[in-house]
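hiii so my PI (J.) wants the whole complex modelled not just the main chain, which honestly fair. so below is everything: two entries, each one labled with what it is. i double checked the lines twice but i was tired so who knows lol
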Amino acid sequence: MSAAEAAALHPDSVIEVSHVTLRFGGVTSLSDVTLQQNRGEILSVIGPNGAGKTSLFNCLTCVYAPQEGSIVYYRPGGESVAVLGRKPNQVNLLGIARTFQTSRLFNALTTFENVKIGVEARQHTGPIGAVLRLPRTRREEKEGDERAFELLDFVGLRAQSNVLASSLPFGAQRRLEIARALGTGPQLLLLDEPAAGGNHAEKAELERLIRRVNVELGVSVLLIEHDMRLVMAIAQRVVVLNFGRVIASGTPREVQRDPAVVEAYLGTPKERE
Amino acid sequence: MSVHEGPSRLNRLRDSRDFRRLGACVFGMLVLALVTGPEGIQGNPTYGVIQSWLRPRVVGFLIAAVVLWALMTFWGRLSGRIRAEVVEVADVGRRLFESRLPRFGTYLLLIVLAVLLPQILSGTWQEITVDQIGTYVLLALGLNVVVGFAGLLDLGYIAFYLIGAYSTAYWSGALPVQPPFDLNPFFIIPFAVLAAMLTGVILGTPTLRLRGDYLAIVTLGFGEIIQIVATNLQGVTGGAEGVIGIRHFSVNLFGVRYAWPVGATANLPYYYLLLGFVVVALVIFHLLEHSRVGRAWTAIREDEVAAAACGINPLKYKIMAFAIGASTSGFAGVLFASKIGFIDPTEFSVQMSILVLILVVFGGQGSLAGALVGAAFIQWGQNFLRVLNVGWYNEQDLYVYLGGLLVVMMIFRPQGVLPSRRRSREIGLAEHGIGTADAMSAGETAP
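here's the output for the full assembly
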């Protein structure tokens, strides 16, 4: 399917993954994966451990280069852009930001500095501007500070802005990572198991935060999550991966009833005996 | 004590800080015993070792080691209280320093001191201050951008110094190959710096894509290549005999005429020139460190994968740091060559690259004050011992002492004498297994 055809099929897509296959030597991590996300949607990717969820994220952000298939991103105007073949930093500037399964904050920097680095992704100050303190540099510094504080307010970490990222509690680190990703001004936010390891209160807070990111900021969210309650509560659609293949997709309700999904999670009746 | 208790106790002892400290003390003293011992004899390779270690004199060194260890341990117990006081005072100082007026006051005072200092020095020390301290401070500041800010291990740093120096020789018309036109030494600076920077970019573009130790190996090889080329390319560089007659700085602009003198009287004028440039370099690097560029460097150093996910192009910023370091090195090369007026390839050995790296690591990676103080202190100490001509110090043993110093530093103060706050946090976190202290070992690699 060409990009133009795909766009015609789904006029409101934000991203389309077509027939992506990723192999590491003899191991096939993703096999003919096709999925599509609408603009403004919260789409969740679920599946047992090792199903290829994080590999999919790494393909979307060009950390891995799949051997086959294509990934097309749509800018807000509807213009289609091929994702594959770019560098991770270029993918970010397209408008796809991500968090990591084990959070990768800049641990020796403060909460504020972490977000500021995200905000600075779209700024232009270079070494000459920085040394000469050109008007643009000063303006960008000021705007960057304001935006970073806004985002810290948004995720509720304003009070901890001068605290080292590494000394934040677990849930706060997750929220900081989301704030940093939002700082880069994404259209699509990829969240890799944001609730993993969190307690009940943290999960509830996270659920509210993801909703607000989606509704208030209008950012589409692609969510990898193991916590089914969270997925069922916020995802509009769910895609299920198992052994690198899409085995089901649909609304949370449909997916829950799908026999293939039940089998993937609980095993076949024979195995269960 | 039962048999079962034995090994676990031994393990606990081995893991304990005191024991490591004792090991370091004994090791240091054994090295000291070796370097102060009698010289080796040809045909009897173990003579030096046997005479230093298996003779009664080694007992004195071992006793000294134990005494040193006891002092340090005792001091450690005692210092808890003292340290708390010091931290309190330091905090007051820091808070004072964070407000503008006292800070700029301190800077101004330091500059005034630096201006007045050489006036009270003897001729020898004036020369050392320029050739050995000032130049190396500039070199250390430049390498600090590469190693400290961006976290890249550059072992061929002196190659750029060589390029700067030989560019100066070229534009002075001192090389066998003649320049296309005549240049005043001040106008040589941009050409030489550009040459060093371009070399840095050309070398960096393919190699900085690599992670890990590859960069260190490539730069090490590059340093060797450049030095060997300078030695053997006789028709272009003048070969092993070196180059003489490099032009000194002079100004002839808007009626101001001044020529930097030659020989013994050259020290003071060059000192002030160098001081000016060091201050400019400090200001530039300080502004860079606290800008978008500096934060990008920190991000890459800490976690390259996360930095790329934040839209930072790691390659671009690494090349930038590498090129800035290279140009500083080239710049120092111009000053050095035009002051001395004579250069030869042996002055640009790989050992020099290591020395500058030691200055930066000793002072504190990523800290401007650290690079400055570290370079000034080690270079001062080294020359102090040389000039003083003390019996136990032999100039050829310099790297033994520096190596010992680094070993001790890595055990007790890995972040350096005057660390940057960010860097010491990183090292502290890395010791607790959170993250890595440099970009060299960070992250996963894409297939």
